[in-house]
């Protein structure tokens, strides 16, 4: 059983999309940004493919207004369990919460974790009905009319081998680091750095850029703690500052994607911790 195969990109047909943000254009049309997410069926299929139907199972526990799902895989002579949880959903209640808990429990095993590397992507929209396009109801309070939308193409790094797009957004051709890989990469660079000193201006630039990218002190503190082991700018050593600035200056667009991926990963982890 090769558990690394759990982390491989899924068939795009197994990915669902939802509207993250939308608004009305000046010309009367609608713009929309969408997010990709797992389906429970995709989780089940991947576990069947990699582990075999007899080597995995799920179990559930109620917790306040939600459900905790644990996925166990039979490895060697024992069952190894990893968990995730979700509140009941507004639309499908307990059934929706059960499905959400399954998908969150799958992420610690690596199933669909690569999707955290995707930022919100633009959808093609139309005010006219289009066959096979998704429908979004009007939001009268915001003045947004009903519209139809088509999910974007996934970037090549988020596709299985043999399914690469011939046309794709150049900004999505390089895969952002996963949060774990980014953290490991930073740690490796720290270990190679020698002593020295940095100026308060350099510290200010690093912290300022983090605030700009991550959107506030709380997110910046959490990401700094994850990457550097310190929530305070006073706790940053020379290596932290120089590696951080090199990361931001090397490819600012990619650095933003990577830091946002870390922020989103930590938010998910914190949500799971609070539920548990």
Topology:
Blueprint: E1 15-24, E2 30-38, H1 40-51, E3 56-63, E4 66-75, E5 78-87, H2 93-106, E6 121-122, E7 124-126, E8 134-136, E9 147-150, H3 179-192, H4 200-214, H5 217-228, H6 238-250, H7 252-275
Antiparallel strand pairs: 1-2, 2-6, 3-4, 4-5, 7-9, 8-9
Notes on the structure:
With 276 residues, the chain is α+β, with helices and mostly antiparallel strands. The protein folds into 2 domains: 154 residues, no CATH class; 97 residues, no CATH class. The chain has 7 helices and 9 strands, in the order E-E-H-E-E-E-H-E-E-E-E-H-H-H-H-H. A 3-stranded antiparallel sheet has the order 1-2-6. A 3-stranded antiparallel sheet has the order 3-4-5. A hairpin with a 2-residue loop joins strand 4 and strand 5. Helix 3 packs across helix 6 and helix 6 packs across helix 7. The radius of gyration is 21 Å and the shape is globular. The two termini are 30 Å apart. About 3% of the residues have low confidence.
What brief labels describe this structure?
276 residues; alpha+beta; three-stranded antiparallel β-sheet; globular
- Beta strand %: 15-25%
Instruction: Give the integer mean of the pLDDT values.
Output: 84
Please give the share of residues in helix: 25-40%
N-to-C SSE string, H for helix and E for strand: EEHEEEHEEEEHHHHH
Alpha carbon gyration radius: 21 Å
Low-confidence stretches: 167-173
Helix/sheet category: alpha+beta
- Main sheet strand line-up: 1-2-6
Anisotropy-based shape:
globular
Domain module tally: 2
Number of helical runs? Answer: 7
Largest sheet properties: 3 strands, antiparallel
Terminal CA distance = 30 Å
Instruction: Give the strand tally.
Output: 9
């Amino acid at each position: 059983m090769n558990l690394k195969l759990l982390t491989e990109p899924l068939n795009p047909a197994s990915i669902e999309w939802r509207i993250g943000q939308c608004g009305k254009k000046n010309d009367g049309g609608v713009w929309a940004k969408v997010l990709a997410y797992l389906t429970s069926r995709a989780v089940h299929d991947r576990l069947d493919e990699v582990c075999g139907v007899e080597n995995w199972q799920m179990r559930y526990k109620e917790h306040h207004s939600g459900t905790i799902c644990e996925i166990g895989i039979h490895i060697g002579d024992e069952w190894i369990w990893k968990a995730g949880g979700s509140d009941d959903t507004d639309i499908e209640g307990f059934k929706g919460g059960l499905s959400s808990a399954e998908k969150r429990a799958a992420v610690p095993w690596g199933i669909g974790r690569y999707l955290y590397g995707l930022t919100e992507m633009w959808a093609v929209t139309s005010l006219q009905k289009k066959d096979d396009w998704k429908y979004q109801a009007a939001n009268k309070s915001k003045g947004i009319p009903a519209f139809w939308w088509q999910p974007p193409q996934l970037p090549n790094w988020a596709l299985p081998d043999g399914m690469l797009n011939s046309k794709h957004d150049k900004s999505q051709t390089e895969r952002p680091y996963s949060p774990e890989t980014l953290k490991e990469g930073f740690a490796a660079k720290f270990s190679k750095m020698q002593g020295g000193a940095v100026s308060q201006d350099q510290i200010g630039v690093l912290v300022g850029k983090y605030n700009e990218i991550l959107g506030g002190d709380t997110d910046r503190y959490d990401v700094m703690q994850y990457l550097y082991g310190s929530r305070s700018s006073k706790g940053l050593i020379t290596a932290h500052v120089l590696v951080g600035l090199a990361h931001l200056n090397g490819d600012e667009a990619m650095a933003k994607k990577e830091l946002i991926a870390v922020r989103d990963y930590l938010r998910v982890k914190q949500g799971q911790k609070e539920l548990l």
